[in-house]
Amino acid sequence: MSIQSVTKRKTAPDIRARKGGEPIVMLTSYHARTAALVDRYCDIILVGDSLGNVMHGFETTVPVTLEMMVLQGQAVMRGSQHALVVVDMPFGSYESSKEQAFHSAARILKETHCGAVKLEGGARMAETIAFLSERGVPVMGHIGLTPQSINTLGSFRAQGREEGSWEPIENDAKAIAQAGAFSVVIEAVAEPLARKITETIAIPTIGIGASATCDGQVLVLEDMLGVSPRTPKFVRRYGNLGPMIEAAIESYAADVRSRSFPGPEHVYGMKANS
User: Fold this and answer.
1) Where are the domains of the chain?
2) What pLDDT sits at residue 152?
3) Of these residues, 99, 187, 191, 199, which one is catalytic?
4) Residue 246 catalytic?
5) What is the reported pLDDT for 273?
6) What does each C-alpha distance from 201 to 17, 23, 169, 177, 197 come to in angstroms?
7) Sign of the four-CA dihedral 106, 119, 122, 18
8) How many CA within 13 A on the CB side of residue 194?
9) Which pTM value belongs to this model?
């Protein structure tokens, strides 16, 4: 007797079929509570290695471990019901060989129950993407600005802003699509180039600092909520929670120091004698 979930999650093939259709909505989440909120409105929840910056205070995503990704992937899966959950493969977990990538991806899928993984890199990772796809691992690609490569890039700067530099990025997109990825994130790429790639390749493109013509968009949740201390150029703030959180903490601290909290309504009295 098989046991099936009553709630049907979106799958990688569902997202693949959205090419040229209704725009795909994607946000990051690392916690069960935020995942439950994001799940109501988004098609994809990305458990991004940006958790290294947001949760752990790292300057880059390079120090993020596979264990960190699995732990937060489990939390997001518990908090969500409908969205496809995609977990980032962290730096050092897939680059050395196709076999290493498969073992890392298999661990992520088995331990989190997520629906797909994401890895960075273009044509150089095409063979790995094909290897994973052929073995039952849905892969989302990531081209343009690849934050895990910060030590070779030197800085987080937009890519493809001179037309002469377009060909390698276009080749990356084509190679990933041909290798079997079900979608690809295009990050910090000149708008005309992102538009051209979207029109050229057969899989959905998901932009972050790319183009409104991409098949979908993704942002880091804390960036768009106004929690992050710095707002990247490509982010539109939909909230200003940082100052609101600080004001609430300030009020709490003042109430504790003045002994106005807890009040009578927050403490327990004795039971009445019968």
Assistant:
1) 12-240
2) 73
3) 187
4) no
5) 80
6) 13, 16, 12, 7, 6
7) positive
8) 28
9) 0.94
